[in-house]
Design goal:
439 residues; 7-stranded antiparallel beta sheet; globular
């Protein structure tokens, strides 16, 4: 049944590939199936050595009509024969059980539940609802007060979406919701983060929707972009205080450029439309490598890793920005996502997001995007004391790397959107002479 069901899920990374077999990593019964419903927690690999996925399977003798969309299938053999399997996150009773488990630290089978002893725990009985906008993970909102993010693709180690908000909370930074509770399993002999519970920022709008509304209404977004730049700089400063930093010298810069070139070549093989632009795009990476060869260094630290307008929330009450989803790009290895990088990585992601928003509007509004990009960098510089545009070679390289990533993502998941990153590819492959901002 899972061979048929898993490839249809939006968070499954192996779309387009047949699933022939599974390797079971662990199975833990959170609720025996003897009552009205049972709950089974699984960690499985789609094939030996492949990605590991977290599944929460509900089990009932008969599936009520309101859960029909959650159906996985009817078990006909084995110890669960005669039961119906379904996606447990769509069942309020079983989703509520997860919250109750998080209220009580301890172990159950291969799972371990933990919490911040100083945090206020959610009250029992909060009604859960799934959050439907996600692509790579699944989240449950409890009573509009808390949100539980469940990582579908699981990696050994501490997920950055727990590690970084926890570190920021210790510094007193109020720009990120503090983790309240979390749970983990075991993968390849190491603990692996499976889910994180945080306060739900009710009364906030995400930056992507705000930008689209501003475009539709013909409103200026530069003031909001400026404030978002300041918020990003504040979070970067807190991360640099909380976690180790390093200096990128020749060897590290060579490694950085080599990784970017490798991703470019792999994407060009998968997306033929990119091939004509490869020489021009590679020039951006070669320029950074050349600067490293000449002795240029850059400071590196922990960063968000996948920063865009959808990861920023603005409070209706006071207009303050918060950042969420510090997981990084799930398709990249955890070792890469946790590696210190220049803050330019995050800045480039947000600049690309302004471009995405502008190009999703008809007619295309280049002046709107340019104004937001400028305002964001100015806001960042106002708090950080240095302007990200003062390193044009590094900024171009990271923008190019991000656009290449977008090309691969859109080609695989949203082909209709492919022209958006391809427009940036055309621009970045034939850059104008960089202009450094006045200091």
């Amino acid at each position: 049944m899972l061979r048929q069901w898993l490839p249809r899920q939006r968070w499954f990374a192996g779309k387009g590939r047949a699933v022939d077999d599974f390797a079971l990593v662990s199975a833990t019964g959170l609720l025996p199936p003897g009552g009205a419903a049972g709950l089974l927690h699984l960690l499985i690999r789609s094939e030996p050595g492949a990605d590991c996925y977290q599944l929460l399977i509900g089990l009932r003798a008969n599936l009520p009509p309101h859960l029909a969309s959650a159906l996985i299938g009817h078990v006909t053999e084995g110890p669960l024969a005669g039961l119906t399997a379904y996606d447990a996150l769509l069942d309020p009773r079983l989703a509520g059980l997860l919250l109750e488990r998080l209220r009580t630290p301890g172990t159950l089978g291969t799972l371990r539940f933990d919490r911040d002893p100083d945090a206020t725990l959610p009250t029992p009985g909060l009604t859960p609802r799934p959050l439907g906008a996600e692509q790579s993970n699944s989240s449950l909102v409890y009573g509009n007060a808390y949100i539980l993010k469940l990582f579908r693709r699981v990696h050994a180690g501490v997920n950055p979406d727990l590690e970084l908000p926890w570190a920021l909370t210790r510094t007193g930074c109020g720009r990120v919701p503090a983790p309240v509770a979390w749970f983990e399993g075991m993968l390849d002999g190491e603990p692996a983060t499976l889910g994180v519970l945080q306060p739900f920022l009710r009364g906030s709008d995400d930056g992507w929707q705000l930008a689209l509304h501003a475009l539709a209404d013909g409103q200026d977004f530069r003031s909001a972009a400026y404030d978002l730049g300041r918020a990003t700089a504040e979070i970067h400063a807190a991360l640099a205080t909380a976690l180790p930093t390093q200096t990128l010298r020749k060897q590290q810069t060579d490694h950085l450029a080599t990784d970017m070139i490798r991703r470019l070549e792999e994407t060009a093989q998968a997306v033929p439309a990119l091939v004509p632009y490869v020489p021009g795009l590679r020039a951006a990476f070669d320029a950074v490598a050349a600067l490293g060869q000449s002795g240029r260094t850059w400071q590196a630290q922990r960063v968000h890793g996948d920063l865009h307008l959808g990861q920023a929330l603005r409070a209706k009450a006071d207009g303050a920005w918060s950042l969420i989803d510090f997981e990084g790009e799930p398709a990249r290895p955890l070792t890469e996502r946790t590696r210190p990088q220049p803050i330019t990585r995050d800045v480039a992601g947000m600049l690309r997001s302004f471009d995405y928003a502008a190009r999703s509007h008809r007619p295309w509004s280049p002046d709107w995007a340019a104004g937001c990009r400028t305002a964001y960098c100015e806001g960042y510089a106002a708090l950080a004391g240095s302007d990200p545009r003062a390193e044009p070679e590094l900024l171009r390289a990271y923008e190019t790397d991000k656009a290449v990533y977008e090309v691969l993502y859109e080609a695989r998941h949203r082909p209709d959107w492919l022209p958006v990153p391809m427009a940036a590819i055309q621009r970045l492959a034939t850059p104008r002479s960089p202009r450094r901002p006045t200091q």
